[in-house]
TrEMBL record:
GO terms for biological process: carbohydrate transport. The chain crosses the membrane at residues 38-59, 87-106, 112-132, 153-176, 182-203, 233-258, 270-290, 297-316, 322-341, 375-396, 408-432. The keyword Ribosomal protein does not apply. InterPro entries: MFS_2, MFS_trans_sf. Pfam families: MFS_2. One of its GO terms (cellular component) is plasma membrane. It comes from the Bacteria. Keywords: Membrane, Transmembrane, Transmembrane helix. This is MFS transporter.
Amino acid sequence: MVSAAARPPSNVSTGVRLGYAVGSFCSANFTTIPGLLLLYYMTNVLAVPALLAGVVVFLPKAWDLIANPLVGQWSDRTTSRWGPRRPWLLAGAAVLPLFFALMFIGPPLKGVPAGLFVGVMFLIAASGFALYEVPYKAMPAEMTTDYHERTSLLQWRMIFIAVSIGLSGIVAPLIAGHTVDGYRVMGIVFAVILLAAMIGSFYGTARAPFTGQQQSAGSLRAQLRAARTSKPFLWLLGLSSAQTLAAGVMLAGAPYFAAYTLGDPDAKTTLFAALVGPMLVTMPLWVWLARRMDKRGAMVLAGSLFALGDVLAVGAPALGSLYAHLAVVVVGVGYAGLQLLQFSMLADVIAYDGAVSGERRGGVFTGLWTAAENAVAAFGATIYGAVLALGGFISSDPENPVTQPESAHTAVIVGLTAIPAVITILGVWMTFKYDLSADRLATITASETKETKETKETAAPEA
C-alpha cells in the first residue's frame, strides 16, 4: 500500500476499489459453500449422522476464536514494502485452496470416519482462510478517513460478493449434484477460483492508499482488552453475530428446504438466485439509505426486512414454490443491507479506535470480528443439524435413499424460518445500542487532529 501522501486520504481510486473487491470471491465462496453444502454433503452423500455433521461444521470455525486475533496482531505488526496487510494475502493463498479441494475430495469412507476426515480438512482450510481474511478485512479502515467513503468503497465489494454468492449458491450445487464425483469436481473448480481471487486482490491493492496509525506496540492481551472495552465494537459485534447466525441457519437449511418442503432438490439454485438478485440491484439504494438514515437506521431496516422474509416463508408448505421464492427475495433485500452496512460500520469502529488510541489495532479488531463471524455462521449449521436430529431426520447416501418421517419435514421448515426470525429480531434490538454515528466519529477525529496539530506546534520551538 502506498502512503497517504500519494493520494487524498478520503479518495480511493476505481482501480483500487475493483482490485480490493476481487478478494470477495474468496470471502464469499469459502463462507457460502461450506455453509450451504457441507452439512448436506455429509448427511446425504457420506451418511454422516446429522448431529455429528453439525458439530464437524462448527468446530473448525471455533478454532478461529484463537487463530484470528493472533493473525490480526501479526498483520498489525507487519512492516514490508508491500504494506502491513498484503503479505498475509499470499500466506492464505498457499493454504486455503488446496485444503478446500480436499474437503470435498470424497474419501472412500462413510459415516463417522468420513465426518472426521472432512473435519480435519476443514480445520486446515479455515486456518488458511484466517491468514487471508483477517488482514483483508482490516484494509478498508486504512484506505480512507471518510465515514461515507467507506460505505461507497465497500459497495463495490458487496457487488462482487453478490456475484460470488451466485457462483457458490447456484453454480456450485449444479456442479456437485448428488454424487461424490460431482462434489469432487466442484471442490477443485472452486479451489481454482479461490486461488485466483486471493492472488488478484494482492496485486489489485498494490496502489491502495494507507492512512493507518503507527504500528501497534502493545501485547495481544492488551489489544484484546482494548477491544473488550470499546463499547461501539462490542455492540456492533453482537448485532452482527446475531444476523450472521440467522443467515448461517438459513444457509444450512436451504438444501433441505428445497428437497423436503418444495419437493425439488434443484430448487436450491433458484432460491439462491432469489437471495442474491437483490444484492446486485439494491446496493446503491442501501448506500443512499445509509446517508439518509445514518448507518444504524439503515441497519434496523435491513434486519427488519430479513426477519419479515423469514416469517413469510413459514407459509411455503401451503402456498407453494413461487410464494417461497418471493419470501426469499424479501430476505435478500434485507441481507444485502446487512452485508454492506456491518462491514462499513466495522471500518468506522477501527477508525474510531485509531483516532482515540493513535495505534494500528485494526488487525486485532478484525481478527475478533472474523473469528466471531466464522464461528457463529458455522454454529448456524450446528443449530440446524440439532433441529433435524430432534425431528428424527434420517441420514443416508445416494445408493440407499430413505423416507423421512413427518416430524423431520416439520423440523426442516421450523429450522429455516422461525429460528432465524427470532435471532434476527434480537440483532435488531442490539442495533439500537450501537451509537457510533457520523457526527460522533467526525467530532472525535476533528478533536484528535486538532490535538495532534497543537502538540506539533508546541514541540516545534523546543526542537
